[in-house]
Amino acid sequence: MEALKQKARAMAQDFLINETQYRLGFLEAEQPNPKTRTLGQTFQSDPARGVEMILSVDRDLAKLFATILKGEAFARFCRLVAQTLQRGNRIFLSGCGATGRLCIRLEASWEEAVAQRKLPQLSGRVLSVMTGGDYAIIRSLESFEDYSALGGEQVRRLGIREGDLLIGVTATAETTSILGTAMEALRCGGNVMMVVCTDPESVMPRLERAKQVFSHPNTDYIYIPCGGMAVTGSTRMQSSTIEQSVIAAALEMVLVNDYTGDTLKVETLIRGLSTLVEALSEPETVKQMADYLLLEKQLYDRGGYVTYFAHEYQLDIITDTTERSPTFSTPAFRPKGMENAPMSWAFVKNPLLPTKEAWQNCFCRSMRCLSWEREVYEGLGLRPDEIDKIPPIDNEALCGFQIGMERMPERELEQSLAVWVGMDEEIPAAFREAAVGYARQEVLVFPRVLEKLIPSALHIWPHLAVKLIMNIISTGTMACMGRVQGNYMVYLSISNKKLIDRSIRIISDLCGISYEDACQALFETVLWMEQTGQTGYPAQKTMERLRGGKA
């Protein structure tokens, strides 16, 4: 035991001394939100009240959205987007994890809108750059975000050039791979607009990688001070909601006012988000979400599985469902042919299209996955052990996740649920046919919400409504199952340096010990789990050991 403690002490000292660039507790988006301090307990005692608690944080976003859209930074943003398109240049939307997925959503919305308005000259002019490529939409590649060179290589291969605009989307203003895309854009003479939820002035003195980007004369930024997430550090929630809203608003302003002959006022966009949140807050809708998440929780308690079916909103549902794995440490989506891996608790299918067409329908374009050789990763600085863990992530690998109409008998079990998800009441016959093999069928639609939403060229608000609904349902389900303590997600992996730091802070706060002591306790748990063959989640296990006096 003493040898284990000594090794853990050395690992902790190495992290404390050499990884100061990843000690991120000072960031606004990493702070606990005071409104949700009892989120886990509240969901367990009263799910409807838990839904209302999350919506109270989302309601604050609507007020903030109004302030941002009336500000000079948003006006500059719109001018920069307009000038880029008028010159014939392209706009790159760069994100990682949750922000990468919102970038893919925005590109798809843009393509749908310009196709509907017969503006072919604008097709292909807004491109998403997801760290790890399109494959990362379905399975997180957490270690990739630690490498700026990897992000730079992705945009270089997409042909970014002088005059292009890169929009970097990062709640914490410091995500390494996103800053790498920005540095490559600046290197080749492009412009950068960073959309962030942490004040860059607080980040630049601490983190050199952020200083290089934000201090450059060709970099501008919009700072959106949304504060802490409903679940601490879970940027898939409020920060990605407000970032998606602001970027969509800028694209919508330019598209409508410069290319359609219509006039769109900022006030109309402002009403869009506030109307959406109020529609979701109506008692009937709150009850609908609360009742459904309890159903899902009970299904998981019995060892069952849920399969969502969707068409128009499949991408939005995939986004939330994918993010459950790294957020709450549920089994990740598994591709065809990997039957030895645990099956994901939830999956998403399109009953109308085969898999390849379903993916293209999600993206509104062909797939853009990475098919790089090992030598490329070596040249970008990835460690050999990290390269060894990279699965195939090319187009063929993405199609291994059968999100189309193909039947999946392995999900049609005694405890299985098929759910159609949408905004209106039209349920395709194809869903009824696909759901026959499941033990139970449900419909989760929100026509009362849809009828209240403000129309938009990019269909901003229906897609955002599905995002918020699924975020609430997944968070509430996991909270009811005990995977949220207070407002911390305690069942998390430590697959990158940011998550190691977050785990240490959770242990420190919930166990009332110093950061340094929590760091050593975490690494002791990691080594103990390796030696004993224990499975589980290091932060959770550490807290159990500390509270039991075993650490």
- Secondary structural class: alpha/beta
Largest sheet: 5 strands, parallel
User: How far from one another are the termini?
Assistant: 10 Å
**What fraction of residues sit in β-strands?**
5-15%
Low-pLDDT runs of 5+ residues are none
Number of helices: 23
Which of globular, elongated, flat, extended, rod-shaped describes the shape?
A: globular
Mean pLDDT: 94
- The helical percent reads 40-55%
Query: Could you give the count of β-strands?
Result: 11
Task: Provide the gyration radius in Å.
Answer: 23 Å
Spatial strand order of the main sheet: 2-1-3-4-5
Task: Please characterize this protein's 3D structure.
- By secondary structure, the protein is an alpha/beta fold.
- The chain contains 23 helices and 11 strands.
- β8, α18 and β9 form a beta-alpha-beta unit.
Tell me the layout of helices and strands.
Elements: H1 2-18, H2 39-45, H3 47-69, H4 72-86, E1 91-95, H5 98-116, E2 126-130, H6 148-157, E3 165-170, H7 176-187, E4 191-196, H8 200-203, H9 208-214, E5 219-223, H10 238-259, H11 266-280, H12 283-301, E6 305-309, H13 314-328, E7 346-349, H14 355-363, H15 374-379, H16 384-388, H17 395-399, E8 416-422, H18 429-434, E9 440-445, H19 447-450, H20 460-480, E10 484-485, E11 488-489, H21 497-511, H22 515-532, H23 538-547
Helix pairs in contact: 1-22, 2-3, 2-20, 3-10, 3-11, 3-12, 3-20, 4-10, 5-10, 5-13, 6-7, 7-9, 10-20, 11-20, 12-20, 13-20, 21-22, 21-23, 22-23
